[in-house]
Amino acid sequence: MSDKHGYMKALKCRECGREYPLTATHVCEFDFGPLEVAYDYERIKKTLTREAIAARPRSMWRYRELLPVAQEPTVGTQAGFTPLVKADRLAKQLGIRELWIKNDAVNYPTLSFKDRVVSVALSRSKELGFETVACASTGNLANAVAAQAASAGLKAFVFIPADLEQGKILNSLIYGAQVIGIKGHYDEVNRLCAEIAGKFGWAFVNVNMRPYYAEGSKSMAYEIAEQLGWRTPPHTVVPMASGSLLTKIHKGYQELAKVGLVADTAPKIFGAQATGCSPISTAQKAGLDFFKPVKPNTIAKSLAIGTPADGFYALKVMRDTGGCAEDVTDEEIREGIRLLAETEGIFAETAGGVTVGVAKKLIAAGKIPADSSAVVCVTGNGLKTLEAMQGHCGQAREIKPSLREFEALLEQMAKVGA
Amino acid sequence: MPKKVRIPTPLRKLTNNEEVVEVNADTIGAAIAELQAQFPGIGERLVDDKGEVRRFVNVYVNEEDIRFLKNRETPLKDGDEISIIPAIAGG
Fold this sequence. Notes:
Number of helices of chain B: 2
Number of strands of chain B: 5
Strand order of the largest sheet of chain B: 2-1-5-3-4
Largest sheet of chain B: 5 strands, mixed
Distance between the termini of chain B: 38 Å
Oligomer: heterodimer
Order of helices and strands of chain A: EEEHHEHEHEHEHEHEHHEHEHHEHHEHH
Radius of gyration of chain A: 21 Å
CATH topology of chain B: Ubiquitin-like (UB roll)
CATH architecture of the domain at 84-110 and 216-389 in chain A: 3-Layer(aba) Sandwich
CATH class of chain B: Alpha Beta
Number of helices of chain A: 16
Order of helices and strands of chain B: EEHHEEE
Largest interface: A-B, 51 and 26 residues
CATH topology of the domain at 84-110 and 216-389 in chain A: Rossmann fold
Strand content of chain B: 15-25%
Distance between the termini of chain A: 62 Å
CATH architecture of chain B: Roll
Shape of chain B: globular
Helix content of chain B: 10-25%
CATH superfamily of chain B: Beta-grasp domain
């Protein structure tokens, strides 16, 4: 690395293009547009070759030149490089020639794609000299911040809606983070955190650290392309909460083409929401380029953002790439979770049920052609949202430790065709 | 009667670093005009050429998003608290 900012050039407003120094700031002072990291792609091109990447450790940091840290990363260095599973049995069920699951349900260390963004956010927070990190979260982000802050010796405050799934609350508490449950939905947590972030000198990963944080999501796209043998898939189905992941996966594909790692093949990006919180998919289906905020009501709590900050850009990506959005009901979400588990042995959280359910609908409607190939992004682990499936996937049959009882049970099961 | 307006960090340069300022207006639209009169330059940060609240600006009255109320016509009463908040990322 030749200068003090690594491969980063500046923070740049996505709306007006004004440039800002590479500090902990996230909003353009002139139009409130989000700031994004600008890179020196010409320099990146020189070192980031397929051969160089192949020789590096199997983590998201093998694409380090395209991630916004100045020095080598120090937090979450083993995050990412999750399996891309060829899902033949699910493909058959959904009626498509070829289907892949990008399985971030087994991301390290906290079993969701948030391990990627937090690894970047905390590595950068340390570079900028912060000692306390914080976030507004629907659960998974809180888990990732709590765990990675613990491993880095940083203090952590995580703010969550008070009614989250027990697994997600305990998964933040266990690491010794300060967990603050807000009596309200995520949009209210978010609003409060924006006000808190303005008052305390903390690194709020999705507020003042957002330009760095959000870039971590791109690594999912890099991995998908590398795992497919350095090509971008024609169709990618991505869950949408704020819409950030969808826009970053698109940016990731574009960057790979820009630095010459893949051919520019115009991949289509599809967005998935829960019907109970579908501001982006509702706008997309109505042909609008703006969304109307909603009050969330869905079991997919990790996607329950009624005022999606990147909704506008997510709509633009779908429009520009020829993709579209779809949404599914709570019952369809549960069916998606069961289908993925029964066909591929992958237990996804509710958001995964959303993407599988939406993929099914898009294939059935011909929006993703049956003779084609698609990647479905599974972003979190089902063990964290057990409540959603409790009472919806049968129950264990109990018997005494007796062979006779077992044989009787088998006979009974055969009768009812179980 | 005065209503409190919480000013977000990116705009405090325009309010001499004041976190909270007061307005007397009876609607959100009028409050933005009053802010502009008090702190020249702040209006164009909040609304676009057509007078619409900018895409990445969220305005709340007593913690409720004005898009769930009456947008710029949202009425204000004595003691109301207005928050101006940039859109932030997911979690």
